[in-house]
Amino acid sequence: MKPPVRTGTAALLILSAGILLLRADEKPATITLPVRVHLLQSAKETDLHTTLTEADVRRVFGKVNKVWAQAGIQFRIESIGKTAALDNAPANKDAKDRWVTDAVPKERLATNALNVCYVKRVTPNGFWTGKMAVVKDTAKLKEIPGGIDEPLPRVTSHELGHALGLPHRQDTTNLMASGTTGFALSAEEIRIAREHAARRSSAGTGEKTGGGKQAD
Ligand SMILES: [Zn+2]
Questions:
Q1: Which domains does the chain have, with CATH numbers?
Q2: Residue 125 C-alpha to ligand 1 middle, in angstroms?
Q3: What is the block-wise mean pLDDT of the chain (216 residues), using blocks of 10 residues?
Q4: Most buried residue, 10, 63, 94, 106, by CB count within 10 Å?
Q5: pTM for the model
Q6: What distance in angstroms lies between residue 80's CA and the mean position of ligand 1's atoms?
Q7: 13 alpha carbon to ligand 1 midpoint, in Å?
Q8: Sign of torsion, CA 51 55 60 61?
Q9: Is 6 left (phi over 0), alpha (psi -120 to 50) or beta?
Q10: Are 136 and 117 in contact, with CB atoms under 8 Å apart?
Q11: C-alpha of residue 87 to centroid of ligand 1, in Å
């Protein structure tokens, strides 16, 4: 009496294939973007001098990719380099974005990858200059229930959100709120970020398709 078993098996196989197809439909393709990481170094300006190591950066990006997995976006580290800050940087720390931007040698910036630059102390925790994400390694956040367990992956993910065209949204549990450990993205934010990421991915450039400058 084997035939009924075979029919049952065939039906199960067809059902499983159907479920697999459905799952494939639900989950959009992952978009992977390259990132060049700059560990800014300066003997003169201790506020610019990060003490993060390559191992720290890899740990941080492991968590950044967990945050961005909800949007099907992943960041691949192209390189992690110690970048010597330019000495002629203006000392006007109030103009924080210019201060850091001017301290990073232009030739070190990737044109075919997103640039993320770690420093020691700036106000606030980080910002997106329109050309690079700047994150201070001493970042502090307001902890919220269910939030991420350390500030750096959250601040890095937040600034990369700006790079992908996302503005602030002050809802404590979400990634684009200012200064909290929240990391949720709305369906609309995922749509916008994926659109930007896809454009960056096909353009192969780190600059021309980015979101506007954001101060934190
Ligand atoms: Zn922001």
A1: 31-203 (3.40.390.10)
A2: 9
A3: 51 53 69 98 93 98 98 98 82 70 92 96 91 96 96 98 97 94 98 97 61 73
A4: 63
A5: 0.83
A6: 23
A7: 48
A8: positive
A9: alpha
A10: no
A11: 28
